[in-house]
Amino acid sequence: MQNENVVVLEHGSPEAQKVAKAMSSPTSADLFNALTGNPQSATALSVTTGLPLTTVKYHLENMLDAGLVEISRTRWSEKGREMKIYAIKDQVVVFAPRKTADVRGVVEKYGTIAGVVAIGCSLILAIPRALSEAVGLNSARTFEAMQLSASGAAPTVADTSSYMPVIHNVVQGFLVIALALLALMMIYELYIVKKNG
């Protein structure tokens, strides 16, 4: 397939309505078929199809306005008049459904991302606690370990509870910043959808 000019028309757009109007008549279809591969003047089309010249000119103007045909060249008649030679435009016309503002889709997308971030942050906070409990550090052992480390002796069990406030603050800060950025991105995308919708 050679390079073709592809024209995408949104259903219901003014351009699509022009095409629909131009091609709604069987007469337009007959003229279109007569021009396919055979550029000719309105007078020649009138003779070829047996239609009145005024009818041919009316339908040609509609197809010209819709962008389905073009004036490929002009020539002079025997009487010295300039004649337009009409030809089918080398293009493919595609009708696409009208774009709708998908507000629900945007909210669902960002809601899902926010949920994943929140669950991830909860897991990050839960893992050190679960590890501490699995190792067997209850509050009494933690207190003993802190006393031993204060006295200079090394604690026998790893103590992660001292890092919990730091981890909690970092994760909480990340969660707040991530949710704020997601909210801003969602608001911006909703603005674009409304503007283009």
Low-pLDDT runs of 5+ residues are 154-158
Task: Estimate the mean pLDDT confidence.
Answer: 76
Helicity, in percent? 55-70%
Order of helices and strands: EHHHHEEEHHH
What fraction of the residues are assigned to beta strands by DSSP? 5-15%
Q: Layout of SSEs?
A:
Blueprint: E1 5-10, H1 14-23, H2 26-35, H3 42-49, H4 53-66, E2 69-76, E3 82-88, E4 91-96, H5 103-135, H6 139-151, H7 164-196
Parallel strand pairs: 1-4
Antiparallel strand pairs: 2-3
Report what the structure shows.
The chain is α+β, with helices and mostly antiparallel strands and 197 residues long. The chain folds into two domains: 5-96, Winged helix-like DNA-binding domain superfamily/Winged helix DNA-binding domain (Arc Repressor Mutant, subunit A), CATH 1.10.10; 103-196, no CATH class. It contains seven helices and four strands; from the N terminus they run βααααβββααα. The protein has helices at residues 14-23, 26-35, 42-49, 53-66, 103-135, 139-151, 164-196; strands at residues 5-10, 69-76, 82-88, 91-96. Strands 1-4 form a two-stranded parallel sheet. β2 (69-76) and β3 (82-88) form a beta hairpin. α5 (103-135) packs antiparallel against α7. The relative contact order is 0.11.
Describe the structure using short key phrases.
single chain; 197 residues; alpha+beta; Arc Repressor Mutant, subunit A; 2 domains; two-stranded parallel sheet; two-stranded antiparallel ribbon; 7 helices; 4 strands; rod-shaped
